[in-house]
Specification:
Elements lengths: L7 E8 L3 E3 L5 E3 L5 H8 L5 E2 L3 E8 L12 H4 L12 H14 L5
Antiparallel strand pairs: 1-5, 2-3, 2-4
């Protein structure tokens, strides 16, 4: 990292743990289920769902803020996709634009 560089703030997706719906209709983390409730979930008698997708703030640095070169990237990030194309890029870009219009960042 070059001296005096400031990180770039990004949104980082995080998936919460799986949940089940108890007999009262409340959604509860599966890890808090009793043995009996876990058995009912496994038998399909209680509904379950994947945990919600939430976002937190993360900090990153652009490659230009470091002394690394493009040739260094495969060593820094082994087994990572570096070159290529994004499938359905135009749809992704439209989604970003819609999201950008709805979100106001305070720096």
């Amino acid at each position: 990292m070059n001296k005096k560089e400031k990180s770039i703030k990004i949104l980082v997706p995080n998936r919460l743990g799986k949940q089940f719906q108890n007999k009262e209709g409340e959604w509860i983390p599966l890890k808090k289920a009793t043995k009996q409730e876990k058995q009912l979930v496994n038998d399909g008698q209680l509904d379950k769902r994947d945990g919600r997708l939430v976002f937190s703030t993360g900090s990153i640095f652009d490659i230009s803020q470091t002394s690394a070169t493009q040739k260094d990237l495969p060593q820094i990030f082994p087994n990572k996709w570096i070159d290529g194309e994004v499938e359905h890029y135009s749809q992704l870009r439209k989604g970003w634009r819609r999201l950008q219009k709805r979100i106001t960042f305070v720096l």
